Amino acid sequence: MKVFNHKETEFIMINIPEILVANGTGAFLVLFLLLYRIRIAQTNQFDEKAYNFMLIVTFIATINETLSFIIDAHPGFIFHILQYISNTISSASSGIIGYCWCLFVEYHIHRNFKRIKKKSRILAVPLIIATILIFINLLGTGIIFDISKENVYTRGPMNFILYIFVFVYYIESIYTVQKAKNDSILVEFFPIYFFIIPCMIGTMIQGFFFGISTIWLCVAIAFILVYIEIQISISFIDDLSGLYNRKYMNHYLNKLQNNKAKHVYGFLMDINDFKTINDIYGHLKGDQAIIQFGKILQHSIDKDSVAIRMGGDEFVIFAILKSNEEALALKKRIEQNVRQFNIHSKEPFHLSFSIGIAKYNGNIDTFLSAMDDSMYEAKNMHRLMQ
User: N or C: which terminus of the chain carries fewer CB neighbours within 10 A?
Assistant: First the structure.
């Protein structure tokens, strides 16, 4: 968003080349990264979509802000309309990216749709308020910004609120990461500050020094840094199911061993007759069975749970629960979601699974053995019933 007033217009006109260089560089970086990500198309998970959407918004905002600087103080009705449109987009873009960034962080850490649904509603409040203020501004109130008869942009008295909302989103994402670390969920090198620090620096520079365009260039740099670091954390994600993988499970169990106060339950699951699905329908449908079961687990777990694909058709959930009753409730929820899949899915196969449940007792080996024994007991029961 632009942050200057009538007195700085002359300076900005002189500073246009620097603005073009800064925003042009930012637009190029974001577009290059977006096209590269589309080309490699690693997964189709929520965090991948959110990240690409943020890149699109950043690219549009960068081009849009450049246009708003160029046409500032140009007389004429068309330029007047363009000034309102471009500055409205600029005012909204930072909040949209802040909102999406928080959801991206939430899902990238927990890979849990229930958490996303709950948090998306809470986090939408600042964005909705900002949208209302921006809409009221379009009625000519000038509370966010005003365009004079000479088509000169000036800030409104409530413009600072948009900045506050953006910083609220940044702070919330930092809190999410810190809480995940405390709860032994997070891979240590999640690059939260690689995004936050450049964005905050760019925002403060442009806020305090009128006519200098730094926000979107810094956002573009932040996305590049985050992407580089995320390539490391991708090694903890299973490509097919979108869940965490066996490597992450080892990380989780190592942290769990150092934090024995948690009431953690383990749910070890194996897809029944998975070999039959591959033999009858082919390996592509077998892959679909893995993908769909991964989605079912993502929609079944609560906010203090993590779902992992151990390998093949074996999955595990670690959940912080208060009682055996809550553990049984989670098991029933998974079973119900599998039944709903079988009723509504157009896939030629039906899913079923065997599950073993155990409570963590302070010893990792005993914990894993108890899950394994319980799951194979359920597997044998399934075979006897066929």
Answer: C
